[in-house]
Amino acid sequence: KNICYTNSTRKYVNKLLNDVISKDFSSILIPVNKIKVGEDKYIDDTYSQKIKIHKGVPLISRMNDKHKYKIVNNEEFICKKIKTINKMKIAILESIRPNDKGEPTKYNINIPLFKIQEHFALGYCITTHKSQGSTIEGNLTIWDWEKMDKKLRYTALTRATKNKNIHFRNI
C-alpha cells in the first residue's frame, strides 16, 4: 500500500505501479474520464487517470452509490476477472465487507468497463485524506512526507499495524 499527500503524487505512483505490474498481464486500457462542460465540450476529469485493468488491479470507490452498485466512498476493491456479456466488457470487482454478524464477507459487483472511471480510481496509492479509517496490515510506503503537516503525518503513520512495515519514498 502507498499513501501520499498530493493527487499528483497519487497519479504518479499509480501510473508507475500500473505500468510495471500490467506488463505481466493481458490488460485493457480505460481512458481518462471526460466531464461535460458545455453542449459539445468535454474536459478531462482531473481526478481520473488511464487505467490498465486486469485481474488483480486495486480500485478505490470515488462515490457512494446505494442503488446500482451498492458501493460506498473509499471502499477498496480488487478486479477479479474481466468477461464479455452481450458484447460488453464487464469487470468483476470484489470487496470484503462485514455481514450482519460483523464477519468479513466477499462482496462482488459486475460493472461495465466504461463505467469504471466514473465510480473508481486506481488504488495502488491513495491520499492521506482517503486513507483515514483504513488499517494496513502489510507494508506501507509513505510519499510526500515533507509536505505533510503534523496531523497528516500522524494519520499516515497510524494506518500501519506495525512500525517495521512503514517505509518512506520521494519522487
Describe the structure.
The protein has helices at residues 7-22, 113-119, 128-131, 150-157; strands at 2-4, 28-30, 34-36, 42-44, 51-53, 58-61, 76-85, 88-98, 104-112, 120-122, 125-127, 140-143, 166-169. 20% of the residues lie in helices and 37% in strands. The strands form four sheets. A five-stranded antiparallel beta sheet has the order 9-8-7-6-10. It is α/β, with parallel strands linked by helices and 171 residues long.
In short:
Helices cover 20% and strands 37% of the residues. With 171 residues, it is an alpha/beta fold. β12 (140-143), α4 (150-157) and β13 form a beta-alpha-beta unit.
**What distance lies between the first and last C-alpha atoms, to the nearest angstrom?**
16 Å
Number of helices: 4
Unreliable residue runs: none
Report the mean per-residue pLDDT as an integer.
Answer: 93
Measured on Cα atoms, how large is the radius of gyration?
17 Å
Number of strands: 13
Please give a handful of descriptors for the protein shown:
globular, five-stranded antiparallel beta sheet, 171 residues, four-stranded parallel beta sheet, alpha/beta
Secondary-structure blueprint of this entry?
Blueprint: E1 2-4, H1 7-22, E2 28-30, E3 34-36, E4 42-44, E5 51-53, E6 58-61, E7 76-85, E8 88-98, E9 104-112, H2 113-119, E10 120-122, E11 125-127, H3 128-131, E12 140-143, H4 150-157, E13 166-169
Parallel strand pairs: 1-11, 1-12, 12-13
Antiparallel strand pairs: 2-5, 3-4, 6-7, 6-10, 7-8, 8-9
